[in-house]
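Need a sequence for this fold. Nothing fancy.
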């Protein structure tokens, strides 16, 4: 099958012909119909973060079940499915308490080291990043990482559900538990940040402030439901947020991921509120906090992984809300590309007018 492979750290995405194994156990063979480009895959391809190379990335996957392993119980051939990079066993204490995103044995969704690889190139194993590997014509995925969605959801929109949507909206609805009437700030009005705005609308937040340095992104944020926008390149964003809210926001979501932005985000938080760290532009960045000040203000700082998502529940919910016209996905899609255009697709994401890029020609 055709795939796009990264052969070494920062070597770029190149086309290749790979062999894919038949499904065993609870594995599901998916004919990929759409695969979204996420910055996480680009970061993983550029830095040595523990992923063995060569590797196939792509973790926003939507497609049709082509074949199932003998132990699969939830899916059948012909089902439309969405992949999610949350890997979980379903049996550890975290999973049994409903926190599958904190699973103690995520490796249970993968083949054991002594088993044949799922992907090979001329007999040499190729890593399937996050257990998904969606930059390919087919993907072999454990059923725990797949969610059935209605056939009416278009594949490009469905692909976005697996990461960008659950990460952004989930940070608001699951991690921060935003309530009706709350005030929130979304720093970084890109694809994931827009989903946080979507989530805030679902939660009934009264004040939704989008902060960015690009007016085009802020305009789109307003169309998604932001009640206020702040261009942090033109004004002091902390002061602007305080003027809008009075004493800060109940929840601030950082989708950028630099020390300076996180520091500003903490200053935007109202007493008793929380700063939620999601974005990672700079993997080396860190945040300094004043311990006594944090105690006195009762502020929270929390890292968020995949929007604290239970994929089987949340992806199905967002798909339903989309079909009911209550969750915006169509406006997230900016560009559709072919499988061999991944490098060009990531370049296109530098354009502030481009929100999400999805591979649809495989």
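Here you go.
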């Amino acid at each position: 099958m055709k795939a796009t492979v990264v052969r070494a750290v920062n070597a770029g995405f190149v086309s290749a012909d790979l062999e894919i194994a038949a499904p065993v156990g609870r594995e599901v063979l998916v004919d990929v119909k759409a695969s979204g480009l996420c910055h996480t895959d680009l970061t993983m391809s550029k830095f040595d973060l523990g992923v063995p190379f060569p590797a196939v990335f792509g973790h926003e996957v939507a497609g049709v079940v082509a074949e199932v392993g003998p132990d699969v119980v939830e899916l059948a051939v012909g089902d439309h499915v969405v992949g999610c990079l949350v890997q979980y066993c379903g049996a550890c204490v975290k999973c049994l308490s409903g926190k599958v995103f904190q699973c103690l044995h995520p490796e249970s969704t993968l083949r054991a080291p002594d088993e044949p690889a799922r992907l090979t190139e001329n007999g040499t194993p190729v890593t399937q990043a996050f257990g998904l590997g969606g930059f390919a014509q087919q993907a072999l995925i454990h059923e725990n990482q797949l969610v059935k969605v209605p056939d009416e959801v278009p594949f490009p929109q469905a692909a976005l559900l697996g990461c960008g949507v659950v990460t952004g909206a989930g940070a608001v609805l699951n991690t921060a538990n935003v309530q009706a009437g709350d005030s929130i700030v979304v720093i970084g009005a890109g694809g994931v940040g827009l989903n946080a705005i979507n989530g805030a609308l679902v939660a009934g937040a009264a004040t939704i402030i989008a902060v960015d340095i690009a007016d085009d992104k802020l305009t789109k944020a307003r169309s998604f439901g932001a009640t206020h926008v702040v261009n942090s390149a033109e004004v002091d964003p902390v002061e602007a947020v305080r003027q809008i809210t009075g004493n800060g926001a109940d929840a601030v979501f950082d989708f950028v991921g630099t020390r300076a932005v996180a520091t500003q985000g903490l200053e935007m938080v109202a007493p008793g509120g929380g700063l939620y760290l999601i974005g990672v532009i700079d993997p080396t960045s860190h945040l300094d906090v004043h311990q006594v000040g944090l105690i006195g203000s009762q502020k929270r700082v929390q890292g968020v992984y995949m929007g604290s998502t239970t994929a089987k529940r949340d992806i199905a919910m967002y798909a339903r809300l989309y079909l009911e016209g209550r969750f915006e996905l169509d406006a997230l899609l900016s560009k559709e590309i072919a499988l061999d255009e991944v490098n060009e697709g990531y370049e296109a994401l530098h354009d502030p007018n481009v929100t999400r890029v999805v591979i649809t020609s495989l």
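For context: The radius of gyration is 20 Å.
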